[in-house]
Amino acid sequence: MKKGIGQHQIGETVDLYLLIKYAKKGIASNGKPFLTLHFTDKTGEIEAKMWGITPEDEAKYISGTVTQVSGDIQDFRGNRQLRLKTIRKPDKEMKAEDFMPSAPMAKEIMLEQVNQYLFEMSNAKIQRITRHLFKKHQQAFSVSPAATKNHHEYVSGLLYHVLSMLELARGIADQYVSLNRDLLYAGVILHDMAKVRELSGPMGTQYTLEGKLLGHISIMVSEVDEASKELGIEGEEVLVLQHMILSHHSKGEWGSPKPPMVKEAEILHMIDNIDAKMNMMDRALDRTQPGEFSERIFAMDQRSFYKPIFID
Amino acid sequence: MKKGIGQHQIGETVDLYLLIKYAKKGIASNGKPFLTLHFTDKTGEIEAKMWGITPEDEAKYISGTVTQVSGDIQDFRGNRQLRLKTIRKPDKEMKAEDFMPSAPMAKEIMLEQVNQYLFEMSNAKIQRITRHLFKKHQQAFSVSPAATKNHHEYVSGLLYHVLSMLELARGIADQYVSLNRDLLYAGVILHDMAKVRELSGPMGTQYTLEGKLLGHISIMVSEVDEASKELGIEGEEVLVLQHMILSHHSKGEWGSPKPPMVKEAEILHMIDNIDAKMNMMDRALDRTQPGEFSERIFAMDQRSFYKPIFID
Amino acid sequence: MKKGIGQHQIGETVDLYLLIKYAKKGIASNGKPFLTLHFTDKTGEIEAKMWGITPEDEAKYISGTVTQVSGDIQDFRGNRQLRLKTIRKPDKEMKAEDFMPSAPMAKEIMLEQVNQYLFEMSNAKIQRITRHLFKKHQQAFSVSPAATKNHHEYVSGLLYHVLSMLELARGIADQYVSLNRDLLYAGVILHDMAKVRELSGPMGTQYTLEGKLLGHISIMVSEVDEASKELGIEGEEVLVLQHMILSHHSKGEWGSPKPPMVKEAEILHMIDNIDAKMNMMDRALDRTQPGEFSERIFAMDQRSFYKPIFID
Amino acid sequence: MKKGIGQHQIGETVDLYLLIKYAKKGIASNGKPFLTLHFTDKTGEIEAKMWGITPEDEAKYISGTVTQVSGDIQDFRGNRQLRLKTIRKPDKEMKAEDFMPSAPMAKEIMLEQVNQYLFEMSNAKIQRITRHLFKKHQQAFSVSPAATKNHHEYVSGLLYHVLSMLELARGIADQYVSLNRDLLYAGVILHDMAKVRELSGPMGTQYTLEGKLLGHISIMVSEVDEASKELGIEGEEVLVLQHMILSHHSKGEWGSPKPPMVKEAEILHMIDNIDAKMNMMDRALDRTQPGEFSERIFAMDQRSFYKPIFID
Amino acid sequence: MKKGIGQHQIGETVDLYLLIKYAKKGIASNGKPFLTLHFTDKTGEIEAKMWGITPEDEAKYISGTVTQVSGDIQDFRGNRQLRLKTIRKPDKEMKAEDFMPSAPMAKEIMLEQVNQYLFEMSNAKIQRITRHLFKKHQQAFSVSPAATKNHHEYVSGLLYHVLSMLELARGIADQYVSLNRDLLYAGVILHDMAKVRELSGPMGTQYTLEGKLLGHISIMVSEVDEASKELGIEGEEVLVLQHMILSHHSKGEWGSPKPPMVKEAEILHMIDNIDAKMNMMDRALDRTQPGEFSERIFAMDQRSFYKPIFID
Amino acid sequence: MKKGIGQHQIGETVDLYLLIKYAKKGIASNGKPFLTLHFTDKTGEIEAKMWGITPEDEAKYISGTVTQVSGDIQDFRGNRQLRLKTIRKPDKEMKAEDFMPSAPMAKEIMLEQVNQYLFEMSNAKIQRITRHLFKKHQQAFSVSPAATKNHHEYVSGLLYHVLSMLELARGIADQYVSLNRDLLYAGVILHDMAKVRELSGPMGTQYTLEGKLLGHISIMVSEVDEASKELGIEGEEVLVLQHMILSHHSKGEWGSPKPPMVKEAEILHMIDNIDAKMNMMDRALDRTQPGEFSERIFAMDQRSFYKPIFID
């Protein structure tokens, strides 16, 4: 099978179909306009500059366009960059969806597995609220990325992140028997659900206005409030679920107005952390040769990770 | 008129009716039980120890009881303390309410004045949401303290704080004409409204469970959401009002998951600050002689304020 | 009336008289010299690059020169930039002063109004010290900017800032009757007065050596000391005025070696904050369309402010 | 079976054999000497004051002594305190060991299980170094607490903590297949091993001099260096193992001179965190009634945890 | 020679003439008044409680009184405390000065040595300003402590600290020839000189009002301003001297509104640090046995220092 | 004698033999490859760009090559930059060593002087360990830089730094007689010794893998452990020496897992600081004209230092 853009090394020449994820016009130091293009396919991403553009180019090569591109992969300040030789619209119609990176599992299978966790819950109030909200947002939830960048920022990334956390939750609850599985599973399923409102969706993902002014945590706390009223559910379960969502970033400076004050809320935060960090480290190390350090990971204090030689 | 407990100096002997605000049993270093009593009347508060108590004393002198008390006011580590001589239940029935410190204005007048600000609003959406919530919580709102300690921690303290902020808001909006009065007034009226759910009320004020796990900011954001749905109001006004409430503590580490990102939200935070600080400084300086420093104010970085002699 | 440089949008072509505020020579990546020019007129500022310059150009287009300029306004990394087509010295003599942005009120009127506040003071010591220093620095004070950037950085910006704070002070003192008006007004008038020594004046504003090594706070504390000795004034008033100046940045890390320890000093800090922030937010939002976020404001934690659509 | 000291409530009268864990002489405010005694048995701990002591009492009731004690359990500033009625040496010889709290598993079984993890390792260098050090310190390791306070501070606490972490490690490595099991297991087994040198052992646990001046992290890095030289092992494995130990506290301010820069080191830190926090939360919540908040947990930012009512 | 109070160990009985440094009345838990007395002589300090006092005792045993005292030295929470047996006024008149701890050198010798450094200066402006201020404050300077606590808090402590720093300065200037000796010596002599105004003098040392509201740094900057005007000295020397004083605490949060921006200012800060820390460590370690840790030193991050056994 | 590269001013034309310290290929904004070259000789360093390079150029002009270069010195964003006119390999063979900046003393003399300090030690254990390690690493130690940048980053920079610190140590120990000279001298000699393992040596200095993963502090602590075992030395001296090395960066966030807890360790940290800062300030000020501010010094909080005019 033909290699994708993420699999080519510096020095190689490529000729590929690529989707334009972002396109931004700039002015070069010689005063001429150019485009900065972020290309993507299922295997990865690359940036390119298109020099000396015409107004037609600017109108033609916009976000969401599939293009046929050739060029060389070069090193630019430690990152790969594509030096464009040719770019054109392909002869045949091609779907943007087929070029967007996505989770390594089919969304139908993932939805099915999350449903299994819902099914296992024994507290009816927690189960009903969680299932209600899961159904309500299921469509957007099943394709949303988990973030605009850093981790799980691809189609169905949110669902994949949640499923991975559910598996961690099960393992930890098996080991520490005092943990309440219902709370933990519900917390995992709901904690980031309002990302479907905070983010604009899988293509050209941006923050929405309510995402910026309220954030997914506050939005989701209101959603649980509303859902419980709609379902006629009262009691501490509603409050504790809201608290788990509210506190899952753990600290005020990270966006949680209250720190975890329920045991399962503390564990939810830690599971979230492990899955996000594993995702970031794995991606950075996939692009690193044994005996080398990875690129710096912004969301992990700009750390760079070493890939030992003895781990083949 | 007879002086109240807050008006007596160290060295004076008192004989007064006082309300027990808190009562807590302890064990002295000689192994005998004693009570720590916080007495209050309209003019202030004082602590006393009741040594060598009987089980009957413990049952009799509980929070909410009006007592007749005599003793001397002494200095204890820089604070006034009452050295009890006699304590007994008064012969006649006396109402606890008559002994609780409260705002320096009648609540009916204050409610009327807040209504005036509501009346001045020109944006119908903002006005309807704010009025709806003001009516809904009016009863509790009119007696609630603004906090358990630090500032405006007395009967109707919340309402007094809001009214004082509304006056500041009007003055600032007169000066800076770009400010939107509706947003600013609505923000002031709503910002702390959920303290009626966060706190247990004016007597023996404590945090409620939802106060601890969610906090008044998150509770109020949900209330605005619910109110707007109930009233069938949609649009940016709802979102911006929620943002003003959400951001009024200004920083993550102070409890706001988002910083102010709307001009009126920033001003709301500053007005809140001025009124709270004026209240704390005035109270501390009322108890300070010219040429002396006040007691340290906990919520103002433990600062102590100097009262100049030339200001009589 | 013809539009000024601050009123032109990206994409427009301009032909204007503009003052060169700064000019700095650089070397392009092709090794050739160029000038970075900051042009200004009453309505705003813009940056431009002048490529391939000669030594004559370098000598001709210096800070303080009025020029006749044509070109296009372009977007450069999110900011407006002027792409120069032609530049030349105008045929007629033009005064730099006529092109410098300045306060929206005449300095004579503002001086008169500040005098009114001086006149209202009742404490003779405070009044005499404040008036003495106000007279001493009146000339520089009446044209000085309040800063090199961020807020009120234009001709008479300092005076405008002070007058605006005096109005805030009056409103707040009307509301909180325990505040001492003399102290508050004097604090406002004096707090930034030494900016006339810290900064080099309204044209091409830079920090002076004493500005860098001592700062306006320490300089002004010495000035009050000297003034009181010259006027033969002694007493706590001198000390408290010095303290108000010393503490008006509130915290050590913001440049105040002592935090406010007098009530009016605390309020002075807050008034200063409100007026500076209102100025920054208003300017940023003036350039923002409804429904958009403003540029980031450096001195407000890099925050960007949203301009609601419903506020026309 | 008779209840232990940890199972008695405030208000109950007890008559028990208890071990003196600490004994410290003080001077009461009446000038007379007294002893502060920390009593313990398998079920918990309690503090008591012994008033009006003689020099004989002081010599008799020292750390490590088993005593027969009667008294009442009282509340002292929110903590349980024992009000002593009688205390004497028991008639029969009793072993201190039988009164010390210890891990809930037999040390022989735990050692056997750790051996199983060692056996599963496939990298011979990592396995040999880890086994060598495990054998070297096995005796002390099998009884050492993991800390002087906060978590796992009981006999065999260190071994129990390590075994619990190994189980977590296995679960996480099952889920994230890119993790190297050998490194992770070795990191878990070695990370706190030098606590056998940092702490003085299970009875009256204190920091040793080398514990204070170097700390268990630095000591253990030297031990791995020495072990590898002794075994003639060279290569990156030695270095990476040392790095895992060095970085397991994650940040400089928490005692790690280098942050994790190898994926397994990051995960080691997170597993350590989860197990320590679960231990602290479980212990605090075991002493908490449903519907109440636990005592504050010092090492978790002084947080107090709520025990929901719906979790029976 | 008879041992002083600082030389007696816990357990010893003493009969000594001692000066009362502070006396403070309190109320015991039995409701009776008592005095807390801080006694001092040349060799050290000790605290005592005087129980069951009369109003006559309170009037008699005040700060500044020399007394004849007998009692036992006991341990109170890790510190020595005197258990009073008898206390009375001595028969003969005794001077308080003879009982106050003071610098280990005669002030006349120290003044002479500082003069020597003044004499060595070659820049006439720096020399004249420094000498002028040194003469002006010489009397108070020669007896002032350097602080109320922490380091050099005894009679002539300020002068001793300055002389010690001058010696360090000479050594460092000998080694780094680029340093300007005049600036460095002048900076050392002037940096803390305004402590003679910030503190109330050697007996019962407290902060003065100007000490609290302005601090010694700001006071001294004004003094240099005034001195240079009086002497008719102008030029950069004045400014740089002021900067050295202003910046000698190095950071805003430590009280310096500007950080050092002149090389000698940076070195001044470091010399100040070394001398203060040596003084604190030496005093703490003088009271520590080899093989033990010292008490915690508050101003050095609460650290405790180990006294190695091999250093006899 | 002909001027070196460090002695030429902006605007001058040069023709010099220069060593290439680093060479890095980049891609210009026009898409063409270029080299960034860091040239050095004994007198200083300069950066240059070589445009439009061929693959042959890339292979020829690598790190460690001596070249003959001509060009102009220009200003580039406040730093000097060389505009290359010609570059070629010299006709005759030239040694890289002759072009590398190095300490201002011959290494043989410095080694001899350090030996003198070793000779003066009286504690045999400290002396033997220190001498053993000094001999072991003498060769690398005598040429190693002290850092990759910031201070003493030249051939023999480490040895020069150590010798300078030894002289400071002697002066301070002369003044404060309670300091133990053996500990202090040994601490100075050993504290940075493992930089010979942390850094790759004097040419093209980089961090080694063990430098990155462990750091010189941890490496050296292990080396002292090993040395003492090899020499059969036991006792507190070993532990205290290890502690001095461990704590010499003073704080966790600066890389020391333990703060100084021995007096000589605290002084070691301060001496290290003085010498490093003097080196940084002197270098920055050597390139600064009187009456100007130096470039910003990265490792001193980005401060810029003023060079007074009156210091000629």
Give the topology.
The structure is a homohexamer of 312-residue chains.
Chain A: E1 13-27, E2 33-41, E3 44-51, H1 55-60, E4 66-76, E5 79-88, H2 107-120, H3 124-136, H4 138-141, H5 157-175, H6 181-191, H7 195-198, H8 209-213, H9 215-231, H10 236-246, H11 263-286
Parallel strand pairs in A: 3-5
Antiparallel strand pairs in A: 1-2, 1-4, 2-3, 4-5
Features:
homohexamer; HD/PDEase_dom (chains A, B, C, D, E, F); 2 domains; alpha+beta; 5-stranded mixed barrel; about 300 residues; 5 strands; Hypothetical protein af1432; OB fold (Dihydrolipoamide Acetyltransferase, E2P); elongated; about 40% helix
Can you characterise this structure?
Chain A is of the alpha+beta class and 312 residues long. Chain A has two domains: 5-96, OB fold (Dihydrolipoamide Acetyltransferase, E2P); 107-281, Hypothetical protein af1432 (Orthogonal Bundle). The first copy, chain A, is 41% helix and 17% strand. The first copy, chain A, contains eleven helices and five strands; from the N terminus they run βββαββαααααααααα. Chain A has helices spanning 55-60, 107-120, 124-136, 138-141, 157-175, 181-191, 195-198, 209-213, 215-231, 236-246, 263-286; strands at residues 13-27, 33-41, 44-51, 66-76, 79-88. In chain A, strands 1-2-3-5-4 form a five-stranded mixed β-barrel. Chain A is elongated. The mean pLDDT of chain A is 92. Chains in contact: A-B, A-C, A-D, A-F, B-C, B-D, B-E, C-E, C-F, D-E, D-F, E-F. The interface between A and C is small, with 9 and 12 residues. Chains A, B, C, D, E, F: GO terms for molecular function: exonuclease activity.
